[in-house]
Design goal:
Structural class: alpha/beta
Mean pLDDT: 97
Helix content: 40-55%
Number of helices: 14
Shape: globular
Distance between the termini: 17 Å
Number of strands: 9
Strand content: 5-15%
Largest sheet: 7 strands, mixed
Radius of gyration: 21 Å
CATH superfamily of the largest domain: Type I PLP-dependent aspartate aminotransferase-like (Major domain)
CATH class of the largest domain: Alpha Beta
Amino acid sequence: MEIKYPLAKETINEEDIDALCEWLKTYPRLTKGALTPQVEKKWAEYIGTNFAVFNNSGSSANLLMVYAAIAAGKIPNKKIVVPSVGWVTTIAPALQFGLEPIMVEADEKTFGIDLDELERVCEEHRPDAVIFVQVLGVPHHRERLLQLKEKYGFFLMEDACAALGASYEDAMVGTVGDMSSFSFYFGHQLSTIEGGMVNTDDCDLYNLLLMLRSHGWAKDLDPASYSQLISDNDIDDFHKPFTFFVPGFNLRSTDLQAFIGLRQMEKAAWVAERRNRNHLRYAENLQGYVEFQDWGDTTPVSISFGALARDTAHRREIVNRLVAAGIETRIFSAGNLGRHPFWTDVQEEFRAPMSDKIHACGFFVPNYPELTDEEVDYISRVIKGEE
C-alpha cells in the first residue's frame, strides 16, 4: 500500500541542502569545530538555560546526562525512578551503568510518570534520582513534580527528546530538570540528521558534560576552567592537549550537523506553531471518539498525534482504515517499556493499568508542519470511519 501521509517528513529542505553544499565548497572543518559552540549557545538561549552541550543523538544525550549525574555524585544510593512510557534509551543508561531502576505507572492525563506513584516510591525507596519524559511533546505536571523534588531531594532529569518547542505558560520544556535532553532526529521537531543536546544551568555539570562528551579531556572548557585544571594537576604545556581528566566517551557531533542545526533554529518558532495547531485540530476533531493526552494550560508540540482506542479490537479497526487510506501509523511510542525483553530479561515484568492501556490501545498518526487543516480533517475522518 502506497503511503500518502507518512508519520514524519524531513525538516531539512532543498534550501538547507543548497546552503550546505555551498558551505562544503569552502572546505570547512567537518568534525566538531567553531560552529558547535554557536549552535549550543543559540539552543541554550532558545530553551532558557545557561548551558547546552551538542552531541551525536538524543539517545547519547540521555546516556551523557545519566552518566554525568553518576560522576557528579548525584546518585550515591544508585536508586533511580524511571518511566514506563517513553523510549528505551531513557531507561537503558540506568541498566548499563549498574543503577537500580524503579519503574512507575503512567499518568492518566499527560502519560508521563504518575506523581502519586512517584511519591509512594519516594516514601518507600528514597531514590536519589528521577528521570521523567515529556511524553510526545505534552508538558508534564511541573509544579507538583518540583514540589516532590523539594520534599524528597532527588536529582531530576528531564527527557524532552520528543518535546522540542513545547512550553508551559512561562517557560520552555527543558527547564524543569537539573539536566534535560533533546533529540534532533529525522521526524522530530527539528533535525540535524542525527543529533542531541543536554541543557543545564549548573556550571560544574556543564564542564563535566563537556569532558565526558569528548574522551575526558578538557579542551572544550572555558579558558579559566581549563587553566585551573591544568594547574591543579601540574600538567605541562606539551602534555595538556592530550590529558584526560575523567573516563569519558566520544559522543561528539560534527560541525556539519551544527551548520544544519543553525539553519533549523531559524524555523523553530514556525515548526512549533504548526505542530501545535495540528495537534489541537486533531483533538477537536476526535474528542469523544478516542482518548488522548490532556495538556491543561500548557502548549503541546508533538512529533505525531497520539491517541488511545477503546480497546485492542477498536485499535485494529482504526489501523486497518488508516493503512487502507495510505496513512502511516504505529504503536504509541513503545507502549509499556516494562513489558519489553530488554527490561524483563533483568527485571520483573512491569504491569500497571494506564501503561498497559497505552500498550494495548495506543497509536500514532502524522503531525508534521506541512500538514494542512484539510489533511488533518481527512485523517480524523478516516480514524472515525467517516471516509
